C-alpha cells in the first residue's frame, strides 16, 4: 500500500465524494416545485440560513397550497419567527415525533410547542403537527449540511402559525400559556381584532385563572366579546365548561361528533362538548357544541369557531362566537336567526315557515304563547325530496306538514326518549301524533321520530332554547315518500313481519302503487308476546315448512279496497257492537274500533283487545297501523301426524290458481 500521505489523500477524496452525493436541505427544497413558497421564505431569513448551516434540524415545510389558503397577518410572511416555528434543533423522523397530546420544542424564541396528534384512519395512522397533516409519503427526506450534520424534511399541508407579539423584542411574552394569552390578548399578532375582555373579566371575578395556567396539554374555548348577551350568566360552572382537560384538540384531526368531558363534571352538573362541521353554501364552518346532560339548564348550545387552532404552551385555544352552556335565545329567535342565514343548514325550513305571512304568523304565535315547546327542524337536504316540491305549492298541505313538527307546551329532551319515558306525543296538528324509537347498534344509538308515515333520524338533539328544545332531523315529517314495502323493509321495529312476508309472497304485493292497502302490521313486540301465549303455533309460523299457513295469517292483516282507512275512518264505519267487515287478501275480517281519551285506539277482534301502537302511518300506496298483537289464534295452525308438506294435488291446484289471479 502507498505512503501515509497517499492514504490520507484517498480518505479525503472518499469523504468529499460522500458529502457531494448527499444533498442539503436547501437543495431538497429547490428540487421540489411544490415547496417554492417556503423556500423563498427561508432564503429571506439570514438567521435561518446560518442555523441550517451550523447544526442538526427538522424542517416542517408547508406545500404551496397551504400558503394560498392560510389566513395570517401578511407581515408574518417576512418575519423570521414564522419560519423558525417550522423548525426543530434535532433531526426526527415521523416515527420519532411522539404520541398524541405530547409536543416538540420548536426553534422559535421561547421554544413554543408543536403539538402532536395521531389519528387512526382506514389504512394507516395520520400524524398531525398542530393542525397540519404530515404528508407521510413525501416526508422523512434526509439531508446533511456542509458540516455533515443530519437534517430531516417533512412536508405538511398547512402553515404553522405561532402566537407572537406585534412588537419584536417582547421576549417575556413568547410561548404564553392559555391565561397569559387571555391576559395579554391585545398584544398578539394575527388574532383578527377579536376582543375577549368580557370573558377575561368573568374569569377574574370567579377566580378561575388557575385552570388556564395548568401545565400539560388541554383545550380551551374562549368566547369573543361580540357574542355576550348577559355576562352574569357566565358563572364558575360555565367557565369550567370551556375547558377540556388533558387533551389537545385541533380541528382537523379531531373526530367530529365525538364527545369530550369538560371540567364541568360533578354531582350537580355534567357537560360534554363535541366538534361538528357544516357546509354553508360554498364554505365549511366548524362549530363546537356543549351538551349539558344535567344541571341548571339542559340541552345543547352551539357556537361557531371564529378563530381555531391557536397553539399555547399548555394546549390549544379556539376563539368562539358566543359562550357555551349559556341558553340565551328563544325558539322564535332560533328560527329568525336561521332564516337570515341564506345558506345556513336550516334555512329552507325557516323559509317555508315565513313564506306565507298568515302561516308564519300563526306558527310563531304558537311558539311565543307556549311556555315550553319542542320543535323538529328538518335539514336543508331533507327538503330536496323531488315529490316534496309539488306539496310546497299547496298551502293547506304545507300547513299540515309544518304543524306536525311542533309539540306545544312541553319540552321533550332526548334522555326521555332514550329512557322510553316518552314513546308518542301529540303535535300542533291535532290529527297527527309523533312516535319515538331508539335503534341500538353495538355502542351506537340512533334516535328516531315518526310522523305521518315518515321516519326521520334525529341528527342533532337537544338544541337548548329558553322556552324549549329543538331537534334537527334528516327528513320532513308528514309527507310519505315510500311504499308499504319500503316502510317495512327499513323500519327495524317491523322487521319480523317483513321477514315473514318475504318468505311468503305477501311482500310482492306491497310495492304495487295501483292499489290501496290498509295493513295491520304486528310489531316485533307483538310477535314476542304471541310466542309466549302460543309458543308452538308461532314457532311454526316462522318455519319454512309452514309457509302456506304463515301466508294465510299475514293475508288476514292486509286489506285491499278502493281506499285506505285511517283508524278514525274505521271507527266511523262501524261500532263496537257490530263492527266493520273489511275485505282482506284472504277473505273478510270483522273488527270494531274503540278510541280512547288519549287519542289512541283499540281493535276488538274475536274477543281480543288489541292496542294500536302506531296508527295511521301513511305510505304512497296505503296506510299501516302497527298493532301490539297479531290477528292469530291457536286454531290457525293445526299440527297433525301428517307432515305439513303432504299437500294434496287438489289443494296445490287451489294455491297456484289463487296466486295467478292476484
Mean pLDDT: 87
- CATH uppermost class of the largest domain: Mainly Beta
Structural class: alpha+beta
Instruction: Please tell me the CATH architecture of the largest domain by its name.
Output: Roll
Number of strands: 29
Please give the largest β-sheet.
Answer: 7 strands, mixed
CATH fold naming of the largest domain:
FAS1 domain
Broad shape: elongated
Low-confidence parts, pLDDT < 50 over ≥5 residues?
8-21, 641-656
CATH H-level name of the largest domain... which superfamily? FAS1 domain
Question: Approximately how much helix is present in the residues?
Answer: 25-40%
Please list the strands of the largest sheet in the order they lie side by side. Answer: 10-9-15-14-13-12-11
Counted up, domains total: 4
The total count of helices amounts to 24
Question: Beta-strand level of the residues, as a percent range?
Answer: 25-35%
Distance between the ends: 105 Å
Radius of gyration: 34 Å
Short description:
The chain has 662 residues and is α+β, with helices and mostly antiparallel strands. It folds into 4 domains: 20-156, FAS1 domain; 171-320, Roll (FAS1 domain); 331-464, FAS1 domain (Roll), CATH 2.30.180; 484-661, FAS1 domain, CATH 2.30.180.10.
Provide a descriptive summary of the structure in words:
It is built from 24 helices and 29 strands. The chain has 662 residues and is of the alpha+beta class. It has 4 domains: 20-156, FAS1 domain (Roll); 171-320, FAS1 domain, CATH 2.30.180; 331-464, FAS1 domain, CATH 2.30.180; 484-661, Roll (FAS1 domain), CATH 2.30.180.10. A 7-stranded mixed sheet has the order 10-9-15-14-13-12-11. The termini are far apart. Mean pLDDT is 87; it is low at 8-21 and 641-656.
Amino acid at each position: 500500500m502507498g505512503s501515509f500521505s497517499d492514504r490520507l489523500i484517498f480518505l479525503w477524496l472518499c469523504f468529499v465524494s460522500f458529502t457531494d452525493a448527499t444533498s442539503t436541505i436547501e437543495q431538497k427544497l429547490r428540487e421540489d416545485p411544490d415547496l417554492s413558497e417556503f423556500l423563498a421564505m427561508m432564503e429571506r431569513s439570514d438567521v435561518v440560513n446560518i442555523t441550517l448551516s451550523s447544526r442538526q434540524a427538522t424542517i416542517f415545510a408547508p406545500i404551496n397550497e397551504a400558503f394560498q389558503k392560510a389566513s395570517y397577518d401578511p407581515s408574518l410572511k417576512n418575519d423570521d419567527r414564522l419560519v423558525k416555528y417550522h423548525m426543530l434543533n434535532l433531526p426526527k423522523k415521523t416515527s420519532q415525533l411522539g404520541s398524541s397530546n405530547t409536543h416538540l420544542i420548536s426553534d422559535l424564541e421561547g421554544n413554543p410547542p408543536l403539538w402532536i396528534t395521531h389519528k387512526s384512519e382506514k389504512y394507516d395512522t395520520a400524524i398531525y403537527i398542530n393542525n397540519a397533516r404530515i404528508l407521510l409519503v413525501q416526508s422523512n427526506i434526509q439531508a446533511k449540511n456542509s458540516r455533515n450534520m443530519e437534517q430531516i424534511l417533512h412536508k405538511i399541508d398547512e402553515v404553522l402559525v405561532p402566537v407572537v407579539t406585534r412588537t419584536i423584542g417582547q421576549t417575556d411574552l413568547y410561548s404564553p400559556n392559555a391565561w397569559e394569552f387571555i391576559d395579554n390578548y391585545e398584544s398578539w399578532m394575527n388574532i383578527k381584532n377579536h376582543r375577549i375582555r368580557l370573558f377575561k373579566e368573568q374569569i377574574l371575578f370567579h377566580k378561575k385563572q388557575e385552570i388556564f395556567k395548568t401545565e400539560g396539554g388541554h383545550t380551551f374555548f374562549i368566547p369573543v366579546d361580540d357574542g355576550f348577551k348577559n355576562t352574569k350568566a357566565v358563572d364558575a360552572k360555565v367557565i369550567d365548561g370551556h375547558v377540556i382537560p388533558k387533551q389537545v384538540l385541533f380541528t382537523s384531526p379531531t373526530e367530529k361528533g365525538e364527545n369530550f368531558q369538560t371540567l364541568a363534571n360533578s354531582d350537580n352538573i355534567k357537560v360534554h362538548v363535541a366538534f361538528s362541521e357544516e357546509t354553508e353554501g360554498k364554505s365549511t364552518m366548524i362549530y363546537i357544541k356543549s351538551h349539558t346532560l344535567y344541571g341548571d339548564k339542559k340541552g345543547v348550545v352551539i357556537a361557531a369557531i371564529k378563530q381555531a387552532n391557536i397553539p399555547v404552551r399548555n394546549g390549544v385555544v379556539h376563539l368562539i362566537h358566543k359562550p357555551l352552556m349559556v341558553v340565551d335565545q328563544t325558539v322564535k329567535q332560533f328560527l329568525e336567526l336561521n332564516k337570515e342565514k341564506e345558506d345556513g343548514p336550516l334555512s329552507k325550513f325557516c323559509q317555508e315557515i315565513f313564506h306565507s305571512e298568515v302561516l308564519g304568523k300563526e306558527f310563531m304565535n304558537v311558539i311565543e304563547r307556549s311556555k315550553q315547546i319542542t320543535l323538529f327542524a328538518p335539514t336543508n337536504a331533507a327538503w330536496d325530496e323531488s315529490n316534496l316540491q309539488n306539496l310546497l305549492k299547496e298551502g293547506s298541505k304545507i300547513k299540515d306538514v309544518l304543524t306536525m313538527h311542533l309539540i306545544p307546551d312541553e319540552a321533550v329532551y332526548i334522555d326521555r326518549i332514550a329512557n322510553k319515558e316518552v314513546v308518542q306525543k301529540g303535535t300542533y296538528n291535532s290529527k297527527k301524533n309523533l312516535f319515538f324509537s331508539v335503534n341500538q347498534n353495538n355502542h351506537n344509538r340512533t334516535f328516531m321520530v315518526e310522523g305521518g308515515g315518515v321516519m326521520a333520524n334525529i341528527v342533532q338533539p337537544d338544541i337548548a332554547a329558553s322556552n324549549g328544545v329543538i331537534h334537527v332531523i334528516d327528513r320532513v315529517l308528514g309527507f310519505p315518500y315510500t311504499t308499504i314495502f319500503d316502510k317495512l323493509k327499513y323500519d327495524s321495529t317491523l322487521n319480523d313481519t317483513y321477514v315473514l312476508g318475504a318468505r311468503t309472497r305477501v311482500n310482492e304485493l306491497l310495492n304495487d302503487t295501483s292499489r290501496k292497502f290498509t295493513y295491520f302490521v304486528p310489531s316485533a313486540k307483538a310477535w314476542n308476546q304471541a310466542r309466549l301465549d302460543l309458543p308452538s303455533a308461532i314457532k311454526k309460523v316462522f318455519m319454512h315448512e309452514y309457509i302456506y299457513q304463515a301466508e294465510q295469517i299475514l293475508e288476514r292483516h292486509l286489506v285491499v279496497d278502493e281506499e285506505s282507512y285511517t283508524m278514525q275512518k274505521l271507527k266511523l264505519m262501524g261500532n263496537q257492537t257490530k263492527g266493520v267487515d273489511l275485505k282482506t287478501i284472504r277473505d273478510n275480517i270483522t273488527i270494531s274500533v274503540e278510541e280512547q281519551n288519549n287519542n289512541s285506539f283499540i281493535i276488538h277482534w274475536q274477543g281480543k283487545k288489541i292496542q294500536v301502537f302506531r296508527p295511521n302511518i301513511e305510505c304512497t300506496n296505503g296506510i299501516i297501523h302497527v298493532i301490539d298483537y297479531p290477528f292469530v289464534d291457536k286454531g290457525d295452525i293445526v299440527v297433525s301426524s301428517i307432515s305439513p308438506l303432504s299437500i294434496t294435488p287438489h289443494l296445490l291446484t287451489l294455491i297456484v290458481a289463487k296466486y295467478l289471479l292476484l
